[in-house]
Amino acid sequence: MRIAVLLASATLLSIAACSSDPPAGTNGKYCATVSANLGKINSPAIVDASDVASTTNLYRTITSVAPLAVQKEWATMTSNVEAAAAVNPADPASVQRVADMTRSSQQAAFAISDYTSKLCGVTIGTPTTTVPPVEPSVPTT
Fold first, then answer.
1. What is d(CA 17, CA 103) in angstroms, rounded to the nearest whole number?
2. How far apart are CA 29 and CA 50, in angstroms?
3. Which of 32, 52, 109, 140 would bridge with 85, disulfide CB 3.0–4.6 Å?
4. Are residues 46 and 55 in contact, defined by beta-carbon separation less than 8 angstroms?
5. What is the pLDDT of residues 55-111, one digit of tens each?
C-alpha cells in the first residue's frame, strides 16, 4: 500500500512539474527575441545568400517563440521571407507571386506590429521586401 501511495505521489509531482514548464511561445521570450533583433527585423541587411538564410532563420525562430496570438501571423511572414529567398528575379511570374503574397499578408504584418507594440513596447516597422527591384528595360533607339 505504501509503495502505491509513493508511486502515485511521485507520478503527481512529475505531472505537476511538467505542467509548470512554460510553453515555448511565452510573452517574455517573444519580447526578448524581438527586442534583441529589432534592427534585423526592421532593416534586414540582405546582400548575399548567407544574409537571406540568416533572415529566414530569424523569422523561423521568432515564429517558434511567438505567443499563439500572433504565431499564425509570424508563420505567414516567415513563408513570405522563404518565398522571397527563392524568387527568380529574372522571372516576372516568380516576382509577381511574391509581390502578391506580400500584399495578401499585410493584415498579418499589421497584427504583428500592433500586438508587439502593445506587449513589448517596441515598434516593428513596415516589412521590407527581400526581392531585388526589377529594373525596367529602356529601349535604346
1. 44
2. 25
3. 52
4. yes
5. 999 999 999 999 999 999 999 999 999 998 899 999 999 999 999 999 999 999 999
Among 73, 62, 6, CA closest to 34: 62
Cell numbers linked to 102 = 506580400
CA-to-CA distance for 97 and 127, rounded, in angstroms? Answer: 17
Cα–Cα–Cα angle for 79, 82, 84, rounded to 5 degrees = 110
Quickly list DSSP for 86-118.
H--TT-HHHHHHHHHHHHHTHHHHHHHHHHHHH
Put simply, whether the predicted model's pTM sits higher than 0.85 gets the answer: no
pLDDT 10s digits, 125-134? 854 444 444 5
